[in-house]
Amino acid sequence: MPERLAEMLLDLWTPLILLWITLPPCIFMAPMNHSQVLMSGSPLELNRLGEEQRILNRSKRGWVWNQMFVLEEFSGPEPILVGRLHTDLDPGSKKIKYILSGDGAGTIFQINDVTGDIHAIKRLDREEKAEYTLTAQAVDWETSKPLEPPSEFIIKVQDINDNAPEFLNGPYHATVPEMSILGTSVTNVTATDADDPVYGNSAKLVYSILEGQPYFSIEPETAIIKTALPNMDREAKEEYLVVIQAKDMGGHSGGLSGTTTLTVTLTDVNDNPPKFAQSLYHFSVPEDVVLGTAIGRVKANDQDIGENAQSSYDIIDGDGTALFEITSDAQAQDGIIRLRKPLDFETKKSYTLKVEAANVHIDPRFSSRGPFKDTATVKIVVEDADEPPVFSSPTYLLEVHENAALNSVIGQVTARDPDITSSPINHSQISRVPVAIKVLDVNDNAPEFASEYEAFLCENGKPGQVIQTVSAMDKDDPKNGHYFLYSLLPEMVNNPNFTIKKNEDNSLSILAKHNGFNRQKQEVYLLPIVISDSGNPPLSSTSTLTIRVCGCSNDGVVQSCNVEAYVLPIGLSMGALIAILACIILLLVIVVLFVTLRRHKNEPLIIKDDEDVRENIIRYDDEGGGEEDTEAFDIATLQNPDGINGFLPRKDIKPDLQFMPRQGLAPVPNGVDVDEFINVRLHEADNDPTAPPYDSIQIYGYEGRGSVAGSLSSLESATSDSDQNFDYLSDWGPRFKRLGELYSVGESDKET
């Protein structure tokens, strides 16, 4: 440790000594050795300068500052002296006091207030804090009055090599293809050093490989790892561990170092051909095996991996190339031999195949190592099996005529036993074969009309006009298709009205020979037509075509075919007459309904004498419960106990006065005031005492026996002893005038 510290101090002070020799004294006031001094010019000296010198020279600052330096990680029995503060104002009489403030003042750095010496009282670490900014000031010892303005200066922590290089991202992993050439780049690594990269060589790193030779090399400054050997084979060794060192101080002795590991994996390339595990394979298969069944597997091994080991299998030669096939299994990397066609032990008992396995993905860089394929021989032995009978044909098609007699021989099927006669196997197999029987047609059906035809002939038609086109059908199915012959009955060959014409599409057209047909003379014509087929022997039938004479428009559109149409008015059809009749009936129904409603409306509203008007019940759609809502309150409270045993009927009083009928009013002219008309009618109704409703007495509620309130009915107040004047009722209007007269008459009768 003392040797290392001496070497560090030598590196530190060498540039400072050079500065002492080469720099002028005014500059040397900057970084010094352990007795760094910061001087200040005296203001008194500035005052002695002449006026001219002050004009020609700029003012000199009170403090001449520069940086102070202190070594990091310095530890000793005494605080280390960093530097000294001094001002020209200090005559040495100890009347000046130095004050220090700022970063670390009092905790890390301590000043002697008399001498101005600054000491570091703690161990410093540049990696934690590289520099400190402090403020110095000289004050009067007794009055503490500042003698000069405060000034800042910096104390820099000087670096020493106390941090080893570190690989922050280690350990590392990298890949490189196998068989790579010399100097192929693998990867690069990076180490960091916390020391100062500017000062000295503390952070200058040099890289080297401690383990991993002779396979890999590293660039000392860039840390790029490369292959040091060519054609490294993955199949021989797939993974390599490389130990890498980073050393500071430019790699010189005494430098610190750090290490990391790099795992290099060789990736596969297709540099190996496939190889069959054996050159000859033997398989056996029963002759009755199902088509597509796997007979056996062959495998060619490949030292490569992944897609570089994929191989395709083919049958390239042999006597069974038509009966067998081989497919590749991508998962198991082997070839599967399957049966393509049936085997027959009695025909051939063994087969020999030559199969080939070839790489799918070939790298042209290694084609010289080829060929990347291999062959093997496969022998397949066919085993005898108890086979079912074999028909002479896989399917049979037999024909029979539809009129064949019962028990007629239709055809014959044959089968044989494929096993050899000397086979000890008991034959218990069953075979099946489809047999199709086709029924052949014979000409046993006569042709006829394809449908029921009814032709219409216009009265104003022209000669030669086509009336109807008909076609025929035959249930038989001749080989060459249908061909029909049409003709008229022999006795109607010279028909004066109609003739026939054969069309190319095997249909028939009926034509009119003349015009002037009249449905009054003859409404319907019947035309028998003979239809014959081309069978052997030919068959025929007679179909009758009904031709109806109709009335048509000028453009030939049929309008009516009935004789009754002549008795109808000109221009009116039967449908139009039915519509007119329906309208008349509807009008009659409307008139009857109108008359009936008028009769009901003209009935008098005055109630006849013999009618017993009891009570008018009018129902209003109230939202309240009303009297029907028996759950809301007890309705028995309102019932009169006197009327419990009997019904109190309504007492209607029919007036004795007879109202003279009013004279009929003159008809109301158009434009009369409706409001005035209504008021006149209302006045008449108010002054007619004979018009309903009549005065009546009805009990609306019971207030209890001995009620001090008495009855609310004004009709029963006439029987009371109270003396009341009812003349005020006349002031209420005509509707209450009659009521006032009744009460007035009642009072006068009482007095009489």
Question: Describe it for me?
Answer:
- The chain has 752 residues and is of the alpha+beta class.
- Among the domains are: 67-158, Sandwich (Immunoglobulin-like); 166-267, Immunoglobulin-like (Sandwich), CATH 2.60.40; 275-383, Cadherins (Immunoglobulin-like), CATH 2.60.40.60; 448-560, Immunoglobulin-like (Sandwich), CATH 2.60.40.60.
- It is 12% helix and 30% strand.
- The chain contains six helices and 38 strands.
- Strands 29, 31, 34, 35 and 36 form a five-stranded mixed beta sheet that branches. A four-stranded mixed beta sheet has the order 1-3-6-5, with no helix packed on it. It has a four-stranded mixed beta sheet with strand order 2-8-7-4, with no helix packed on it.
- A hairpin with a 7-residue loop joins strand 34 (524-532) and strand 35.
- The radius of gyration is 69 Å and the shape is flat.
- It starts with a helix and ends with a helix.
- 16% of the residues are buried.
- Mean pLDDT is 77; it is low at 1-35, 39-64, 609-614, 646-651 and 717-722.
- Cadherins are calcium-dependent cell adhesion proteins.
- Residues 87-167, 168-276, 277-391, 413-449, 449-571 form the Cadherin domain.
- Its main location: membrane.
- It is found in: Cell membrane.
- Keywords: Calcium, Cell adhesion, Cell membrane, Cleavage on pair of basic residues, Glycoprotein, Membrane, Metal-binding, Repeat, Signal, Transmembrane, Transmembrane helix.
